[in-house]
Design goal:
With about 600 residues, the protein is an alpha+beta fold. It has three domains: about 140 residues, Nuclear Transport Factor 2, Chain: A; about 120 residues, Alpha-Beta Plaits (2-Layer Sandwich), CATH 3.30.70; about 290 residues, Beta-lactamase (3-Layer(aba) Sandwich), CATH 3.40.710.10. The protein is about 30% helix and about 25% strand. Strands 1, 2, 3, 4, 5 and 6 form a six-stranded antiparallel beta sheet that branches. Helix 8 packs antiparallel against helix 18 and helix 11 crosses helix 14. This is Penicillin-binding transpeptidase domain-containing protein. It comes from Rhodococcus parequi.
Length: about 600
């Protein structure tokens, strides 16, 4: 027997796509006598190129060899990498080594001794499944199987928030969607999804024969009652997959998508694995190697289940698109993120939707004015019904006129004319800089969460500063961004948002702490707004401070409604799209907070 020893012939199987001729040539396998060593090199070269036909042709049973080799290459996955090395060769047998790499440290190496025989006057591999691995029998093949990390995603209390569960993906061949099938599918799927409707047929070019239409993804408890009937529909395809689902199916928070994406990404690193033997029908007959998922702490979020439940209930009382975000001002933990079904149709607006913040931005304007030293909370200021400020005429809502009042009173009653006058005297970038210190306009990278806080450009003309002062013009904010503003006021400095335990958030700006005296003044103004100002509808809620906002958009005939609030360490923002006033946002805040007073 020839020992290949220190200079083995090695062929690498990369993505399983090399052609046989290229592989054999690159490994230097053409030419030479028909010896055992020659056959060994050709066979291992064919394996290195994943060329089933070439490898099978070197055996004494090409048909059976081709089938088992094909199933093995398919079963071990297209992303696997492998080295095949001839270790020693003789006239009656050769030994080769297989080094498989499935990624993420999942490796498997073994040696196989392959007997040789003579068929049709040529040296051939004496075929059996053991040629692939000596533990295979009959027509068994190899299959790689990831073992999912089945630990749940937890809420702040350590209870299961989301769990990996089996779902059924329902697709249908587009060519099969004739009117009778469409009617049948609509009736069937409506049993699982009330109100289900099939999308209208496409016009234009006819569908290709192999094109599929995704219909719906169903939980097991929903699909089982109709599975048998679905399977009888022409062109239907049912595929069971593992998905991370909310334990409470009523939870539709926009954080779910980010959690699912984070969990799926972690599966690549945390999943266990098995290489198993399977029979021609695909049944597992044994396990050859593998590893279990690592033990450790499950992914734990900061969501407070009680607050999340109340937030969802609160936004669901509003027929227009509405969102609510609540943060723990002490540590930046995301406590609740909720939006209703009308909001869902526009995407995750609670986290990334940008809208003019209206008068809720007066928290920023007032702090900038206090920081400048131009006024104090008790400074007497003008609050006329309308004002011509540097050529820009600005009215109060319904042109209410308070005359000359302390700044804290003008804030509590949301005097546009007062705020416009204050902003004109500030530097062009004063409101932008102050917004950044509140976390508004800061880019946070929070693991498990995709957020956009907002945008506050520099206001380089008096007219722009007037508009910016009352949260109009080019100013934009998301509910998450305004919740950050509330949390910053409550804490005295902008916290780093936190969502997944043990994961660190980064930001493109590190805000400076606010002046404690100015923070006290601003909190007192927000308390006054609830007790005797624009938010008196919530004056029965103990310890609440806040600021209402109405923000015109488009042609100015319609407005969004806002409310930002602080109660204890809970800082939150509510948005009602096209709410026309702050009233609907106040109503949602009341539904969210009043049950907490009852505890």
């Amino acid at each position: 027997m020839t020992h290949i020893g220190a200079n083995p012939v090695r062929c690498k199987r990369g993505a399983l796509v090399l052609a046989a001729a290229l592989t054999l040539t690159s490994c230097g396998l053409l030419g030479g006598p028909d010896s055992g060593e020659k056959v060994a090199k050709k066979f291992v070269g064919a394996l290195g190129g994943a060329d089933v036909a070439a490898a099978a042709a070197l055996t004494d049973d090409p048909d059976r060899a081709s089938e088992v080799l094909r199933r093995t290459f398919d079963g071990l996955g297209g992303e696997a990498d492998a080295d095949f090395t001839v270790e020693q060769a003789g006239d009656s047998a050769f030994t080769y080594r297989s080094d498989w790499d499935f990624g993420g440290g999942r490796t498997w190496s073994y040696s196989t001794t392959v007997p040789l025989t003579t068929a049709d006057g040529s040296r051939r591999v004496a075929w059996s499944a053991a040629v692939i691995n000596e533990r295979l029998q009959g027509d068994q093949a190899l299959q790689y199987t990831p073992v999912t990390d089945t630990r749940a995603v937890l809420d702040a209390n350590g209870m299961a928030l989301m769990e990996p569960r089996t779902v059924t993906v329902v697709d249908v061949d587009s060519a099969a969607l004739v009117p009778t099938v469409r009617t049948r599918l609509t009736a069937l799927l409506a049993k699982a999804v009330p109100g289900f409707e099939l999308a209208a047929p496409r016009t234009g070019e006819p569908a290709t024969p192999d094109e599929r239409v995704h219909l719906v993804t169903l939980r097991q408890e929903d699909v089982e009652p109709i599975r048998a009937e679905l399977e009888q529909v022409p062109g239907i395809h049912l595929s069971d997959q593992l998905r991370l689902l909310t334990v409470d199916r009523r939870m539709t928070s926009p954080v779910v998508a980010g959690l699912r994406a984070t969990w799926e990404a972690r599966q690549k690193d945390s999943a266990g694995w098995r290489v198993q033997s399977v029979d021609p029908e695909g049944s597992v007959t044994g396990t050859l190697t593998g590893g279990d998922p690592p033990e450790g702490t499950a992914m734990r979020t900061t969501l407070d289940p009680r607050l999340q439940y109340l937030a969802q209930q609160a936004v669901d009382t509003e027929p227009r698109a509405a969102a609510l975000v609540a943060l723990d001002s002490g540590n930046g933990q995301v406590l609740a993120v909720a939006q209703n079904a009308p909001a869902d149709r526009s995407g995750p607006i609670a986290l990334t939707g940008l809208y003019p913040p209206g008068s809720t931005f007066k928290t920023v304007t007032t702090m900038a004015a206090l920081q400048s030293g131009a006024v104090t909370a008790d400074s007497v200021v003008d609050c006329p019904g309308t004002a011509n400020i540097e050529g820009r005429v600005i009215p109060n809502e319904n042109e209410f006129d308070l005359g000359r009042v302390p700044l804290h009173t003008a804030f509590a009653h949301s005097c546009n004319t007062t705020m416009g006058r204050l902003a004109v005297g500030l530097p062009a970038d004063a409101l932008q800089d102050q917004a950044h210190e509140f976390g508004l306009g800061v880019d946070y990278v929070t693991p498990g969460l995709t957020t956009v806080t907002g945008s506050v450009p520099s206001a380089d003309t008096p007219a722009k500063r007037v508009e910016a002062a009352i949260g109009q013009g080019e100013n934009l904010a998301s509910p998450f961004g305004m919740a950050m503003v509330a949390a910053t006021i409550a804490r005295g400095s902008a916290p780093l948002p936190q969502f997944i335990g043990g994961e660190t958030t980064t930001a493109d700006h590190e805000p400076d702490p606010l002046d404690p005296a100015h923070v006290r003044d601003l909190k007192a103004m927000m308390t006054e707004a609830v007790r005797s100002g624009t938010a008196t509808g919530l004056s029965d809620i103990s310890g609440l401070m806040g600021k209402t906002g109405t923000a015109e958009f488009g042609d100015g005939k319609h407005s969004h409604g806002w409310f930002v609030g602080i109660r204890g360490t809970v800082a939150f923002a509510v948005l009602v799209v096209s709410g026309e006033s702050s009233g609907p946002a106040l109503d949602i805040a009341g539904h969210f907070l009043r049950p907490l007073d009852e505890q």
